[in-house]
What we know:
The complex is a heterodimer of chains A (445) and B (159).
Chain A: E1 11-12, E2 34-38, E3 42-43, H1 53-73, E4 76-78, H2 88-93, H3 97-102, E5 107-116, E6 119-128, E7 133-142, H4 147-163, E8 172-179, E9 186-193, E10 200-201, E11 209-214, E12 220-225, E13 232-237, E14 243-245, E15 253-258, E16 264-271, E17 274-281, E18 287-289, E19 297-302, E20 308-313, E21 320-325, E22 332-333, E23 340-346, E24 352-359, E25 362-369, E26 376-381, E27 384-389, E28 395-404, E29 410-419, E30 426-428, E31 433-439
Parallel strand pairs in A: 2-4, 2-5, 3-5
Antiparallel strand pairs in A: 1-7, 5-6, 6-7, 8-9, 8-31, 9-10, 11-12, 12-13, 13-14, 15-16, 16-17, 17-18, 19-20, 20-21, 21-22, 23-24, 24-25, 25-26, 27-28, 28-29, 29-30
Helix pairs in contact in A: 1-4
Chain B: H1 2-30, E1 46-48, E2 51-52, E3 54-56, H2 66-81, E4 86-91, H3 99-119, E5 127-131, H4 144-150, E6 152-158
Parallel strand pairs in B: 4-5
Antiparallel strand pairs in B: 1-2, 3-6, 4-6
Helix pairs in contact in B: 2-3
Amino acid sequence: MKKIFYILVIFLFKINIAYSLIEVDITRGNLDPLPIAVSPLHVDPQSDDYKDAKTKELGSLISSVVEKNFKSTGLFNPLNKDAFVQKPDIAHLKPRFEDWSLITAQALVTGKLLIKDEKLKIEFRLWDVAANKEMIALAFTTTPSNWRRVAHIISDKIYERLTGETGYFDTRIIYVSETGPRTQRIKKLAIMDQDGENTKYLTLGNELVLTPRFNPTNQLVTYLSYFRNLPRVYLLDIETGIQEVVGNFPGMTFAPRFSPDGKKIIMSFAKDGNSDIYTMNLESRLVEKLTEDSSIDTSPSYSPDGKYICFNSDRSGLQQIYTMKSDGTSTKRISFGDGLYGTPVWSPRGDLIAFTKVKGGKFYIGVMRADGSGERLLTENFYQEAPSWSPNGRLLVFYRETKSGKNGEGFTAKLWSIDITGYNERELKTETDASDPSWSSLLSK
Amino acid sequence: MKFNKKITNLLIVLISALALSACSTAKKSGGGGSSDVYSGSATVEYLASGVKDRVFFATNKSGLTTASRDTLRKQASWMRKNKKINVVLEGHGDERGTREYNLALAEKRANAARDYLLTYGISGKRISVISYGKEKPVNSASTPLAWSQNRRSVTVKTK
């Protein structure tokens, strides 16, 4: 983890842009996922330690990470490898398209790798089976321990080529790991790859921690910690482990998020029973108060251009969503449906605001346009909240508690994701119970 | 046997119908949602004889009820008699709200209790406030009763 990931060279062989090539439309729920064959990467016999099973299997491991990523999108249907006729090395050179089209593959991924002098060289190609054409060919050189990240980067490149959208596989999710009974819950900050691998715990569980959020520009995280029983917003560098309190507030600070340029933290500060929204510039340490209202103002989130802020307030009497300019002027209520609205969070694309809605004893995750129009509820459950956007603005990750026992004394908390089309709802595997997810930006931008 | 079963079923229907109507009347009579304030004593502890340690709140509200004011007046007079005792007021919410809003709301509840103690002559220096939001429920069940017991401000002696 400490090792800085580097890609020595990216060769852009060629990208054929032809009109007839396959495209995946992700703007509607895709009921007809694209059949894709991901051939195991061919391992060059000249690799160091070629006899070692670990090296030999690396080609299959990488292809299964890619497959798992594709499957998770709901847009692709990775085909069973047992049906593959062509050997990986030959397919990579020149696929026999008739064979692949016979097993209904519309797209084919091939590749090969070589490990030499502690360097891993990987090359892959994406083929359009029906058009008999190569769509992308790319090569990477990195350290062998980075093979998972290369698999995610390959997935991103293919996803981008086929959907026209930015990928989101080479990313991480930070969340709160939960263990123990409800009345004595132990919470730790945890981080994992987007596909649930490489889980690491960042705090020990000695104090309550909540709501970690990534800086969109680097590997800093802001969160709420009850260290020494003083609930304050903290800043954590996940590479170095260094933590610091944000600002010098004489009371609880909470609900932190970064500005899109990563230079400010926006949060709530509670004083004498009144919560207002503040920003603090991380360089100049300058603190600015943005709301001045005797009601609760919390859960602020910037628009991606930094010009607006959406937030949660009960100034109308009950929890609703408001927007204002980033200087605190032009405040406008945007949620008007039945029920309560909380946790607004602005899409990185700028078009939508995701939220939690509480209505009739149920919790919904939904989206609305920035002016409050076009409200769509994506998923309903007994209890779920805290949506966080994938960096391409196509998915939301959130957490859900599922009750058990006669009176719901038992429960599990898990992370879930859903496409903003409302399709492809699925659970993200975590080692422990989990809550408060936050999705990182692409690691390799 | 069959007949018995029918009667049992009928009874269940009747009982649930009664329960439903009880719910709806309770809501109406409460006026403005103050009806779901916990008024029992199952979770209550005592700071001294006759001095309850906690007050309860309605869903999404931070206002004090008559019973809560009574409890806080007793706490104030107990603090006046015991000048060396300082307290922390721990504000809490139920699980039926979003986490961040609950942190703010629970802080508001604890401060409502604090303000009342201040008006009864207790120095602000003797009272600190902390919000736990919905993080520390006293009853882990998912029932209206449990939620009402969890919406609370608890006065705790500090050492």
